């Protein structure tokens, strides 16, 4: 298997936000198409000079060393029992103290991956950061990560931050794949983008977003419908050219993972894709393969975003498929909460940490590492969140807290000086 564009260069792709960080080095994505679908990539030009067998070699996941139990938080916030644990499908929520920020999380996950894989620091040719969080409006997270490469003398590392809510991580992955080989575009990606104010961060003086929850869910489902329709049409066109004229359905996929704002959204999303298949099927197929959905065959997708009767029927009809093809991917999200742009890759790491596959040891120990976190009370959690607000955009301070509470080998914010310059230190391994 060919290395990269030069023998000594490797590639790293980094995606993270405040609750979790994950790293994906090369080789990248066309192999993933072969893994999760029945269709091989069809290159658009000659392939004799392209790297072979491009795919993911390793994943590294980091999450904070503390969490708040969602049952405790329900009681503390004086909400009905089950609002978080049942309504959101979440048992624990990991969170960062004032000692950690986007830079420290990225420092930790890059160093862990390099050490675990025993990669030479001078062998990296690209480092791509995907995020939706910024500390500085000019200085990239990637420039902070270059400190890790200083002793090796390797300053010839391409790549920069890709900043965008939720999509930043995936965009950086595509950028890294394109850097490796020009056949990364195989004509099978389905994309949807529109200008909607459902989730945005206009106030740079605040850590918190402006959110229209109902609209955000509607946007998610609309994007899901249109991306699936685009992907299905492209793949069916390729099949037809190869002499295989049949519809593409979810049965053609081995596994399905999703961007995960909360776990129940994922189950509804898979059910939603089944509804797409149902509406596209013939009447006979609808009756034979999609029991319990016959009453909904006359509906249009755009009229069903808030149809609770349909949601209930779809979840029931797709339960077996969800258990077989998606549920295992929600392990990390269930125990750590929303990870924003990196949540898709947390799902990938969760899927690979199950008995389905052993990609690298860094994913197989996820349950053990999650279990080693410290449980804190809802009161302590609230105090830490208030502390983060207190120190947001402050200068000339060292964050309070006991660094011994961090996982061994974790990078943390040591000081912010009067010129907003940040220095970081690492807890001994």
TrEMBL record:
Family annotation (PROSITE patterns): HMG_COA_SYNTHASE
Hydroxymethylglutaryl-coenzyme A synthase N-terminal domain boundaries: 50-188
UniProt entry keywords in alphabetical sequence: Lipid biosynthesis, Lipid metabolism, Transferase
Domain of life: Eukaryota
GO CC terms of this entry: mitochondrion
GO molecular function: hydroxymethylglutaryl-CoA synthase activity
InterPro entries (UniProt xref): HMG_CoA_synt_AS, HMG_CoA_synt_C_dom, HMG_CoA_synth_N, Thiolase-like
Domain (Hydroxymethylglutaryl-coenzyme A synthase C-terminal): residue spans on this chain: 357-427
Membership in a protein family: Belongs to the thiolase-like superfamily. HMG-CoA synthase family.
The protein's name: 3-hydroxy-3-methylglutaryl-CoA synthase 2
């Amino acid at each position: 298997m060919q290395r990269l564009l030069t023998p000594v260069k490797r590639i790293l792709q980094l995606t993270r936000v405040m609750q979790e960080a994950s790293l994906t080095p090369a080789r990248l994505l066309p192999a993933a198409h072969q893994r999760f679908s029945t269709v091989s990539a069809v290159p658009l030009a000659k392939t004799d000079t392209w790297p072979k067998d491009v795919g993911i070699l390793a994943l590294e996941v980091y999450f904070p060393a503390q969490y708040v139990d969602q049952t405790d938080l329900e009681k503390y916030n004086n909400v009905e029992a089950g609002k978080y644990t049942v309504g959101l499908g979440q048992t624990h929520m990991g969170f960062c103290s004032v000692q950690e920020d986007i830079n420290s999380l990225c420092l930790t996950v890059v160093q862990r991956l390099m050490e675990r894989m025993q990669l030479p620091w001078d062998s990296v040719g690209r480092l791509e950061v995907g995020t939706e969080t910024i500390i500085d409006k000019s200085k990239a997270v990637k420039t902070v990560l270059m400190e890790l490469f200083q002793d090796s003398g390797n300053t010839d590392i391409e790549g920069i931050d890709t900043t965008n809510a939720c999509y930043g991580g995936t965009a950086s992955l595509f950028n890294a794949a394109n850097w490796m080989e020009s056949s990364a575009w195989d004509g099978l990606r389905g994309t949807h983008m529109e200008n909607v104010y459902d989730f945005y961060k206009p106030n740079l003086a605040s850590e918190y977003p402006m959110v229209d929850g109902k609209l955000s869910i509607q946007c998610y489902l609309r994007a899901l419908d249109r991306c699936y329709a685009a992907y299905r049409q492209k793949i069916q066109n390729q099949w037809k050219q190869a002499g295989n004229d049949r519809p593409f359905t979810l049965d053609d996929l081995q596994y399905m993972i999703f961007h995960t704002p909360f776990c129940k959204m994922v189950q509804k999303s898979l059910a939603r894709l089944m509804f797409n298949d149902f509406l596209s099927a013939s009447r006979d197929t609808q009756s034979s393969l999609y029991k319990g959905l016959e009453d909904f065959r006359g509906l249009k997708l755009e009229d069903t975003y808030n149809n609770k009767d349909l949601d209930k029927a779809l979840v029931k009809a797709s339960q077996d498929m969800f258990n077989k093809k998606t549920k295992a991917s929600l392990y990390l999200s269930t125990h750590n909460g929303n990870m924003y742009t990196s949540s898709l890759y947390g799902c990938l790491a969760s899927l690979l940490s199950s008995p389905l596959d052993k990609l690298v040891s860094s994913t197989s120990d996820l349950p053990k590492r999650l279990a080693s976190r410290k449980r804190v009370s809802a009161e302590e959690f609230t105090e830490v969140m208030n502390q983060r607000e207190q120190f947001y955009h402050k200068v000339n301070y060292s964050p309070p807290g006991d660094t011994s509470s961090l996982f061994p080998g974790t990078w943390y914010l040591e000081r912010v000086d009067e010129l907003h310059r940040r220095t970081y230190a690492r807890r001994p391994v």
